[in-house]
Design goal:
Number of strands: 18
Keywords: Iron, Iron-sulfur, Membrane, Metal-binding, Transmembrane, Transmembrane helix
Shape: elongated
Distance between the termini: 46 Å
Structural class: alpha/beta
Strand content: 5-15%
Mean pLDDT: 90
Low-confidence stretches: 742-765
GO molecular function: iron-sulfur cluster binding; metal ion binding; oxidoreductase activity
Oligomer: single chain
Number of domains: 5
Strand order of the largest sheet: 6-5-4-7-18
Protein name: Glutamate synthase
Radius of gyration: 33 Å
InterPro entries: 4Fe4S_Fe-S-bd, 4Fe4S_Fe_S_CS, DPD_II, FAD/NAD-bd_sf, FAD/NAD-binding_dom, Helical_ferredxn
Length: 765
């Protein structure tokens, strides 16, 4: 569409050039100054048909009709001349809007004074017409920001030039004034048509914002007259959609929140996109009619003729009954009806600056797949979610949405954030059931990359490399993919079938897996030698060491070890030390084994690292919480029988038959990484630059082994970032330069070739 639009721009320019200077083909209608209007009509019909906003469709209909009839058909088929004042080169043909001193000129100035610049720029201007129809394909290129806003003052130079034309045309012409006026119209023509060709860079309104002398004239009347755009800050929810939809780049939200109105009103051409796009009716247009009808409120609902929409409350997925779910390891949430998922997705406001996307480490296109889900197109929604995330169905289950996407949702402070996590999970599941799945790339480019570690970082890296046509093999010492997701997250939070389904999809897309394979120094050196790049995503699975007396007693377990147990503990007491999601997982697992469970957190209730959702379901399942309990020692004779805490009021002992240490994890990379030229910091984390490159060429890393224990989504973001870097580093001339830097010999392998089912000490996943 953009190429088609560019061709139309070119044809309009050549038509003007032909009538002005070239004089080819005896000035045919398809190659003269009227060519532009024919193009506006053709593209305008398409835009009117495609436009979904009722008010904008009406405006486009009037705009295209006015340009076609007033600017094209009447001057071409039945031209009539306008009266004027002054000394013009020739008698102007109606409409002589841009010609100073004509009747049309004065009438439009009066209309703009009463109703604002919109009566011409928004509804009856060929300059805007071609940019609203042909240039629509470049709307998303509008330059925004402080400097773009400050530079708008360049138009006042052209305005002063135009004022000079108004003045000199009131006196009999001479050689100087003729040159002055001729230069003005030449500059207008060149800037007007010239900005067509920078639209792919600057957006469709560059001329209107920075160069148009007529718009500047009408803009001053916006200030002088009755036109105004106001913002009610009590209704505004700060979604900033008004700023996003403004092609003129006006900081509508910023000015409205600060002053209660748009102060840069001279740049407002009255399209009302900001007003009709406001989800809370916080914006309204005012003009001379408000002088006689003070109660008139021209907000979005008024302009769109909308009836009030009933408020849809946030409804979270319903969990299974407590008595039922504590007896098994099945996931606890019931899938809502499709209609309910669509209704909840429709709550998304599609903010101009989506806080949800900003709050997501993966920058997921949340409003886009929300819109698809709201109309019931779950395959499209899943495809959009998959475009930025390798594991959307996992993120929907495990991400702490309360402090990421949902915590940044503009509806959070009003009537509850959109249920982003739940919808992300369910749209992907429904799409799978409908047969959707990412296919294999159309071609392979010959590059080969090895990924060590099948956790979130490794899988994300492998997925995005595979999409780019790179041949990828993923190595992991476990028998299944997922890393900690597979054995560190209990099934009642992440069913194992989810990972099995995702593995099948990865394999169908062409990713190869070498599972049950331990990668040691020799194997890693061989992988580096045999591949264009190697990514290390081995995570952190070593329990954090805490110098706690008695931790070696029988009955004391590390969190991961305890989560893998299935021994009945009916009637036993389990004390979990920790304050994160892993601690809650262990306590809930203990309840399913028949034990009573208490979480002892050093911090207060308001400083828990665990998500409120997990705390809520844990309490429902009978988990108790003790806050301000700092463990001093594990007590017991021959076996753990309790924990001694420093608490408010002094030292106290709590009885326990089983003690679980859930203090988190820390990095433990193999010492031989240094032999391969890979540097680590004092905590054992691998050093990388901002794009995942390690200190050893062709070796990349990301995830918890770089950042320390963190979220699934941040590990996935690191994997994707490294994949993008690998693709860039191994493409074209970069690949050749990169290869020259690797002429130093690789460390000699000291073991047999890499094979599945090895049992060598080294890097796991």
């Amino acid at each position: 569409m953009q190429l088609f639009a560019f061709a139309a721009f070119t044809l309009a320019f050549v038509g003007w050039l032909n009538e002005s200077w070239l004089f080819l083909f005896e000035n045919p209608v398809w190659l003269n100054r009227y060519t532009e209007y024919a193009i506006i009509l053709g593209f305008g019909l398409w835009r009117i048909y495609a436009e979904q906003n009722r008010y904008t469709r009406l405006r486009l209909t009037v705009l295209v009709a006015a340009v076609t009839v007033l600017w094209w058909l009447i001057p071409w088929l039945t031209p009539f001349f306008e009266p004027y004042v002054g000394y013009l080169w020739s008698q102007p043909v109606f409409p002589g809007l841009h010609v100073p001193g004509t009747v049309t000129f004065f009438l439009v100035l009066a209309a703009v004074f009463l109703f604002g610049r919109r009566v011409i720029c928004g509804w009856n201007c060929p300059c805007v017409g071609i940019r609203e129809t042909v240039g629509f394909a470049f709307r998303d290129r509008t330059v925004r920001g402080k400097w773009a806003w400050r530079l708008r003052h360049t138009k006042w130079f052209f305005f002063v030039f135009y004022v000079g034309v108004m003045v000199v045309t009131q006196y009999p012409p001479n050689s100087w004034t003729v040159s002055f006026v001729g230069m003005f119209y030449l500059v207008v023509g060149l800037t007007y048509f010239g900005t067509f060709f920078v639209a792919p860079i600057t957006g469709n309104r560059f001329y209107c914002r920075y160069l148009c002398p007529y718009g500047a004239t009408f803009g001053l009347l916006n200030h002088a007259g009755f036109y105004d755009v106001r913002l009610d800050s009590t209704k505004c929810n700060d979604c900033r959609r008004c700023e996003q939809v403004c092609d003129m780049g006006i900081p509508v939200w910023e000015q409205g929140k600060k002053h209660g109105r748009i102060t840069g009103i001279e740049d407002c051409m009255g399209c009302a996109r900001c007003v009709v796009s406001c989800p809370t009716d916080a914006l309204e247009i005012r003009d001379v009619r408000n002088l006689f009808r003070p109660g008139l409120v021209q907000n979005g609902s008024h302009l769109m003729k909308k009836r009030p929409v009933p408020l849809v409350p946030r409804i979270d997925p319903e969990p299974r009954p407590v008595a039922e779910r504590v007896r098994d390891d099945d996931e606890i949430y019931l899938r809502p009806a499709l209609a309910e998922i669509e209704k909840q997705a429709a709550r998304c406001l599609d903010c101009g600056v989506p806080g949800c996307r900003t709050g997501c480490p993966l920058q997921n296109r949340i409003p886009d797949w929300m819109q698809a889900a709201a109309r019931g197109d779950f395959v499209e929604a899943a495809a959009i979610a998959q475009s930025t995330s390798a594991l959307p169905e996992v993120c929907g289950r495990l991400c702490p949405q309360h402090r990421l996407c949902e915590g940044s949702c503009t509806k959070a402070k009003e009537d509850g954030a959109v249920t982003i996590g739940a919808i992300e999970r369910y749209v992907t599941e429904i799409a799978f059931e409908q047969g959707w799945g990412p296919g294999e790339p159309a071609r392979r480019d010959g590059r080969r990359v090895a990924v060590v570690g099948a956790g979130p970082a490794g899988l994300s890296c492998a997925d995005f490399l595979n999409r780019a046509g790179v041949t990828v093999t993923v190595y992991d010492r476990a028998e299944e993919i997922g890393g900690l997701l597979g054995h560190g997250v209990p099934p009642f939070k992440l069913d194992r079938s989810v990972l099995a389904t995702r593995r099948a999809l990865f394999e169908a897309a062409g990713i190869r897996f070498a599972l049950g394979t331990d990668v040691d120094r020799a194997a890693l050196a061989r992988l580096v030698a045999d591949h264009d790049a190697v990514f290390i995503g081995t995570g952190t699975q070593k329990a954090r060491e805490v110098p706690l007396p008695g931790r070696a007693l029988p009955g004391v377990h590390a969190a991961l070890d305890f989560l893998s147990q299935s021994v009945a503990l009916r009637g036993r007491r389990v004390a979990v030390l920790g304050a994160g999601d892993t601690a809650i997982d262990c306590a809930r697992h203990a309840r399913r084994l028949g034990a009573s469970a208490t979480i002892h957190a050093r911090a207060g209730a308001d400083r828990l690292r665990a998500s409120p959702r997990e705390v809520k379901v844990a309490r429902e399942e009978g988990v108790e919480f003790q806050f301000g309990h700092a463990p001093i020692a594990i007590v017991g004779e021959g076996r753990a029988s309790g924990v001694r805490f420093e608490a408010k009021g002094g030292i106290r002992d709590e009885q326990a038959d089983v003690v679980v240490l859930a203090f988190g994890f820390e990095s433990e990379p193999p010492a031989w990484l240094a032999d391969l030229g890979v540097e680590t910091d004092e905590t054992g984390r691998i050093r990388v630059d901002g794009r995942g490159r390690t200190t050893r060429p062709r070796l990349y890393a990301g995830g918890d082994n770089v950042s320390g224990p963190d979220l699934v989504v941040t590990a996935m973001a690191a994997g994707r970032r490294a994949a993008e870097t690998i693709i860039k580093d191994t493409a074209g001339w970069r690949r050749a330069v990169h290869a020259l830097a690797l002429r130093r010999p690789a460390p000699a392998p000291d073991a047999a070739p890499l094979a599945a089912k090895q049992s060598l000490s080294g890097v796991g996943a």
